[in-house]
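Lab meeting minutes (informal)
Scribe: AK
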Amino acid sequence: MAEAKLVEKRCWKALKEVMDPEFPVSVVDMGLIYGIEEQDGVVTVTMTYTAVSCACMEWIEGDIRKRLLQEAGVEEVEINVVWDPPWTVERLSPEAREKMKTWGVSAR
């Protein structure tokens, strides 16, 4: 159990390196990642997108898989996309809000 929590913590940190293709903000700071669980080397990422019609879904999921498979103890990555609760700008981290502000994007 403690090992699973350690792997999950490392996975959260690793996903801070996976950028949203539209804005150079991590998928974590965008608030797209709802949860990460690890069991017997299988990491399940529960996530959403900013819109149902997001053109970058496969790209983002591929980047997530590629990055997480680099972590020790991760043998497989499953991605569970959910739409409830829906993504809103309230999910943006303070860092993401600041970055968007510098680009002139409203994040209210």
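Next up, CB showed the second protein from the same session:
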Amino acid sequence: MAYELYYWDGIQGRGEFVRLALEEAGADYVDVTRDQRRGTGAMFEIMESESEPHLPFAPPFLKDGGLIIPHVANILFYLGPKLGLAPEDDGLRHVVNGLQLTITDFVAEAHDTHHPIDLSLYYEDQKAEAKARSAAFIRDRIPKFLDYFERVLQQNPKGSNHMVGDALTYVDLSIFQVIEGLTYAFPKSMAKCRAKYPGLLALHDAVAQRPNIARYLASPRRLAFNEQGIFRHYPELDSAE
């Protein structure tokens, strides 16, 4: 039975972290809201159900048979062993999960650069605040997170080809997506700091060259970044200073 992924249509968003794992593993899955026969209505049918005992609060969520798993890190923690994208050691699985949860924090901060006050307001309604928030994110938070991830990678006892252990895990795929998103949203700022993170950039490039990922990136299933998703490019928010 195919996995069912539920997320907003038209954007990569948080659902992309799950898609990358499914694509890398060659898993059988359905991107439900992109299915013209089912669409977004199928997602709301579950979220607004009056009988579903385990309601998800928001997408993305994954349906595996009768089981519904919400939240990116939780989904990947569930899928990782099934897809061969998690360490066999149970302790290291929790290390990978911890890194994924840190990525969750990072992604939330990236999102808040363009929505710093109110999620219900348009970006245009909070541009001044977004500019201030983005300046702080670029100055302080991008280095804070990327320095940490680079250090974790370089201190991996099994070598710096992977974040944890000596084989690909879902957190490697997620690091790829974070670098992709930041480069799209803040190209000038990321160009300036690239030399500081040789390990992360090498990991990013290695992931991009994996056969299943390369095929996915070249396919129409990989939607382009746009200004409706988490990582948005507004030139006025980017700075190489």
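CB comment: The mean pLDDT is 95.
No objections, moving on.
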